[in-house]
Amino acid sequence: MKRQDYLNWDEYFMGIAHMSAKRSKDPNTSVGACIVSQDNRILSVGYNGMPKGCSDDEYPWDREGDDLETKYFYVCHAELNAILNYSGSNLKGSKVYTTLFPCNECTKALIQAGVAEVIYSCDKYNGVPSNIAAKRMFKSAGIECRALLPTGKNITIEL
Q1: 3-state DSSP assignment of residue 46
Q2: Residues 6 or more apart from 6 whose CB is under 8 A from it?
């Protein structure tokens, strides 16, 4: 008889998004994303961090202060990194699993890349203008968005 406690596809891919978030050096918000094909193959992963060549020791991680001394002008979001990390030619019809509902800027990139579905863990910015704009664009583009509710499964990995 086969095991009954295996991960379903949603749990598996969201788990990979959460693992990817562990690469982020952001002290406040670590986000991971995993882009998957229609036949459940991983196409790309990403996490929020500084662009290549921009030292994460040199650039700020602060959330408040002078604009140029906060992270917001510099950090590349997980979803955009996953798109940019993709080495293939077409993301049309793919799904993105992301630990945080995408911002309006990542939403535009996901739409343009051809992503057809967004599955997210957390929507902590629900109701703020950029979140409302993102949801409006996804709806207009016919992209399904759904929260992945916790299943209570725990995975422990010892490295």
Answers
A1: strand
A2: none
Query: For 125-147, how does the pLDDT look when each residue is reduced to its tens digit (9 = 90+)?
Result: 999 999 999 999 999 999 999 99
Q: How far apart are CA 65 and CA 113, in angstroms?
A: 34
State if pTM tops 0.85.
Answer: yes
51: CB partners within 8 A, 6+ apart: 74, 76
> Could you tell me the end-to-end alpha-carbon distance of the chain, in angstroms, rounded to an integer?
30
Cβ-contact 134, 103 below 8 angstroms: yes
Taking alpha carbons only, the member of 73, 126, 74 closest to residue 103 is: 126
Q: Strand, coil or helix: what is 10?
A: helix
What DSSP designation does 102 have? P
Residue 107 amino acid letter:
T
Q: Which residues are catalytic?
A: 79
Between CA 58 and CA 65 the distance in angstroms is 16
- Cα dihedral 4→150→46→9 (10° resolution): 30
**Residues ≥6 apart with Cβ < 8 Å to 139:** none
